[in-house]
Amino acid sequence: MVVMNNNDKNKVATATILIHEQPDNKLLIRKSFRVREYDPDRDRPGVEDVERRCEVGPSGSVSLYTDLLGDPICRVRHSPAFLMLVAQMDDEEGEVVGLIRGCIKTVTCGQKLSRNPNSLNSAVPVYTKLAYILGLRVSPSHRRMGVGLKLVSRMEQWFRDTGAEYAYMATDKDNKPSVSLFTERCGYSKFRTPSILVQPVFAHRVKLPSRLMTIVKLGPVEADRLYRRHFSTTEFFPRDIDAVLRNPLSLGTFLAVPSRSEWTGIDRFLAEPAESWAVVSIWNCKEVFTLEGAPVAADSVGARAVQAVRGALFVWGGGSGADGVRMVRGLCGYAHNVAKEYGCGVVATEVASCEPLKRGIPHWERLSCAEDLWCVKRLGEDYSDGSLGDWTKSKPGNSIFVDPREI
Asked: For the N-acetyltransferase domain, which residue ranges apply (predicted)?
């Protein structure tokens, strides 16, 4: 049983937990906890302790997981708006028993026909203010007491107060407690099932298909123009893509064009794109991801690369044309070589399950996740564009944009 009380004056949500009752309903233990904003000066040790206790170690196979120790807000600090909450026991010890992170941004939720007859694109994006819940953790000793539910509720209140229209979260589809909490108790619906693809970085460099393509590095302004021209109507595309490309963690954007083509600048390319092309941007996750696993056979390909190696690069992008898949594969090879220079253990990406270019992305199945689960919830009654209706009921497209700031 959980009795909740909101203290608006101090912006602290409190809850009382009835830990145990006798058969005659006489209370044996009564404890309460509060949900408040994370304070890095006093909460960091408690948060790190919860993270350690909630971390699932390797189970005999190789696994990729996030390592947030040292910077609890590293996965949200680059977002336009973010908040981290903790649940703390109201007793002398004041133990931190739970935490949650959230961020808000404006993204594409659909498209409509352009009313501008001079527009180069017949379709234009429809944007919505979207919130993202990530990093929900509850100490194993305090689960099934309403801590997770209270953390989610308080975070959603901040989302609404900030004007977010939708909220979503991502989890492993086999994580039954998480799926149950969000879909059965918090009103979320299963929405998208993207694939997480992970490729180890080998001891040798990958040979690039120079006869097929030439790789051109784009500056942030050039990359911004390219992404807005060709991908702005992609689901989850961030309206502040320029901020992503200018971020210090962005290692660059690389465009592949046919080797026989002469590069004359972004203006000419946007006006007359090559028959086949591909683009990839690289994001440095070296301090966030850790790759661990059980020892593998000595003759396994990349064996040395997958044993307790720290660091990853995340890539995103797209392409077009008959050779688009092959060019994407070549750009992934280029990203592999960049990762090798940076001392990273893997290159990772996340794509829609039906992404046409998915065939060109090299990955190990043992490291990858065929179906991640995204769940979504509508927070308000109004919509960004009334003609589109409720985004939660829309059909999935072939592609999605995965924001590297939230990896």
From this structure: 33-209
CA distance 38 to 101: 9
User: Across the strands, what pairs with 87?
Assistant: 35, 98
- Interior angle at CA 270, CA 269 and CA 273, nearest 5: 55
| CA gap 90, 105 in Å, rounded | 33
In angstroms, the CA 358 to CA 370 distance is 11
pLDDT digits (tens, 9 = 90+) for 10-44: 456 666 554 444 455 554 455 799 999 999 999 99
List pLDDT tens digits, range 347-382: 999 999 999 999 999 999 988 998 899 999 999 876
Map tokens 């304070």 to a residue.
Answer: 39
Max CA distance (Å), the chain: 84
Of 386, 376, 384, the residue nearest 127 (C-alpha)? 384
| Residue environment code for 162-188, b if the CB has 16+ CB neighbours within 10 A, otherwise e | eebbbbbbbbeeeeeebbebbeeebeb
Q: Are strands 277-284 and 250-258 parallel, antiparallel or unpaired?
A: antiparallel
The phi and psi torsions of 299 (rounded to 5 degrees) equal: -95, 5
d(CA 170, CA 135): 10
